[in-house]
């Protein structure tokens, strides 16, 4: 492994994947040893247009010739920041029309949680078991996995966790609750799709008690699950949606979006009660505008559904317990963790990058770029089938 990587870079585990990337284009990573790898995880649901999409690169180049950072968030009129906010609001239903930009997903959730507290004057929060919302203190406080929380206790007080997808448990939401935060489909928890009934009951309970419903669409957003946003498939609308990851075609950008009325809680009492230096960076916003256009013009959410069909058809193998998820946010569940590790490793040796989800060690994540071509997708799936055969 590279000496600088080993010695100077902080590691997040004892076993990083450690691929040395020279460049990336479309669905491919090209490594320094000259090999080519098909990226079937899109940098964890980020590179939905593939790597270096020409429209994104063009938008970045145009913006860097004009200006980089000029002022902290929310003070100056910046063409692509304001323009993208308007286009994003247009792509969302009424009631989700005021966009607050951040840099990352966890920061979008931090803002959403603070907004819910400020707008309701309440402090209690509800999250769901097995969820993942990010690693800063607020997001970790509503993340439902003790193994990640315990070393950092105490976290925010007044947070309770309910079982995900359980309609009866929703009666715990009452009028002391500021917000309920959930992923519409759990990602890191192991790609878990709850029922339409649960989504409707959750929306009804929040409306009845005045608790704000936050959908964390950081992973499910921007076409990944077969619609521009996953909530569209469940027939419910959140009060606040949080976004990041695929938003800016590989550039860092996040946002939380609510009604104008709700968002006005951040304008005063005190003014600047939530600020960020780099949120809505002009280069990221230019890239995000191009990304949204490509997603819409090339109907990539629809293509995610086609990916699901191809993957399900090709991975009907006896070692596969289940393929679950929606669109191009899929998980292949195998019968044991050791086999899973062997399959992932042998796919990598065969030129296909797969991965785990954070909370599961026998679920293989499959999240290709939404515009992956049929021959490349089939080539990758053939490598997976061969690895399953050999496992
Ligand atoms: N929320 C969800 C559902 C995520 O999947 C992630 C990251 O995987 C985050 C929040 C955190 O986003 P970020 O890593 O950009 O802070």
Provide a descriptive summary of the structure in words.
There is one protein chain. Helices cover 36% and strands 18% of the residues. By secondary structure, it is α/β, with parallel strands linked by helices. The chain has 2 domains: 141 residues, Aspartate Aminotransferase, domain 1, CATH 3.90.1150; 243 residues, Aspartate Aminotransferase, domain 2, CATH 3.40.640. It is globular. The two termini are 26 Å apart. The structure holds pyridoxal-5'-phosphate. The site of pyridoxal-5'-phosphate has 15 residues, from helix 5.
Bound molecules: pyridoxal-5'-phosphate
CATH class of the largest domain: Alpha Beta
**Any idea of the CATH topology of the largest domain?**
Aspartate Aminotransferase, domain 2
Strand order of the largest sheet: 4-10-9-8-7-5-6
Outline the biggest β-sheet.
7 strands, mixed
Question: Approximately how much beta-strand content do the residues carry?
Answer: 15-25%
Main structural class: alpha/beta
Note the run of SSEs as H and E.
HEEEHHHEHEHHEEHEHEEHHHEEHEEEH
Total helices: the number is 14
Low-confidence stretches: none
Cα end-to-end separation: 26 Å
Q: Average pLDDT, to the nearest integer?
A: 97
Shape: globular
CATH architecture of the largest domain: 3-Layer(aba) Sandwich
* DSSP, total strands: 15
Ordered list of secondary-structure elements with their pairings:
Elements: H1 3-7, E1 21-25, E2 28-31, E3 36-39, H2 42-45, H3 54-64, H4 79-91, E4 98-102, H5 105-120, E5 124-128, H6 137-141, H7 146-149, E6 159-162, E7 177-182, H8 196-209, E8 212-216, H9 231-234, E9 240-243, E10 254-258, H10 260-263, H11 282-297, H12 300-314, E11 320-326, E12 329-334, H13 337-349, E13 352-353, E14 355-357, E15 360-366, H14 374-390
Parallel strand pairs: 3-13, 5-6, 5-7, 7-8, 8-9
Antiparallel strand pairs: 1-2, 2-3, 4-10, 9-10, 11-12, 12-15, 14-15
Helix pairs in contact: 3-11, 4-11, 12-14, 13-14
Bound molecules: pyridoxal-5'-phosphate.
């Amino acid at each position: 492994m590279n000496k600088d990587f080993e010695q100077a870079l902080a590691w997040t585990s004892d076993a990083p994947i450690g691929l040395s990337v020279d460049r990336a284009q479309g669905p491919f990573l090209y490594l320094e040893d000259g090999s080519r790898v098909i990226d079937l995880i899109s940098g964890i649901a980020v590179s939905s247009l593939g790597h270096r999409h020409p429209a994104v690169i063009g938008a970045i180049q145009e913006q860097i010739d004009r200006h980089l950072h000029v002022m902290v968030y929310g003070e100056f009129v910046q063409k692509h920041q304001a323009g993208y906010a308007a286009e994003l609001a247009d792509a969302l239903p009424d009631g989700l029309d005021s966009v607050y930009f951040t840099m990352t997903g966890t920061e979008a959730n931090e803002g959403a949680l603070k907004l819910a507290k400020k707008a309701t004057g309440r402090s209690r929060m509800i999250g769901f078991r097995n969820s993942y919302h990010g690693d800063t203190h607020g997001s970790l406080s509503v993340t439902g996995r003790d193994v990640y929380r315990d070393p950092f206790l105490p976290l925010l007080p007044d947070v309770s966790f309910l079982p995900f997808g359980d309609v009866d448990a929703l009666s715990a939401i009452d009028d002391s609750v500021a917000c309920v935060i959930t992923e519409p489909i759990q990602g890191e928890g192991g790609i878990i799709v709850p029922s339409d009934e649960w989504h409707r009951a959750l929306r009804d309970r929040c409306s009845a008690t005045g608790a704000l419903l936050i959908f964390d669409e950081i992973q499910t957003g921007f076409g990944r699950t077969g619609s521009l946003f996953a909530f569209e498939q469940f027939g419910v609308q959140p009060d606040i949606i949080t976004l990041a990851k695929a938003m800016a075609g590989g550039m860092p950008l996040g946002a939380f979006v609510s009604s104008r009325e709700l968002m006005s809680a951040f304008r005063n009492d005190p003014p600047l009660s939530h600020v960020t230096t780099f949120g809505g960076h002009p280069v990221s916003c230019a890239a995000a505008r191009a990304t949204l256009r490509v997603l819409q013009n090339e109907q990539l959410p629809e293509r995610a559904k086609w990916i699901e069909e191809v993957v399900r058809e090709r991975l009907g193998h006896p070692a596969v317990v289940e393929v679950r998820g929606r669109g191009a946010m899929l998980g292949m569940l195998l019968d044991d963790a050791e086999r899973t590790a062997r399959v992932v490793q042998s796919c990598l040796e065969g030129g296909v990058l797969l991965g785990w989800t954070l909370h599961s060690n026998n679920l293989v994540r499959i999240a290709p770029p939404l515009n992956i071509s049929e021959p490349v997708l089939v080539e990758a799936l053939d490598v997976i089938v061969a690895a399953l055969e050999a496992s």
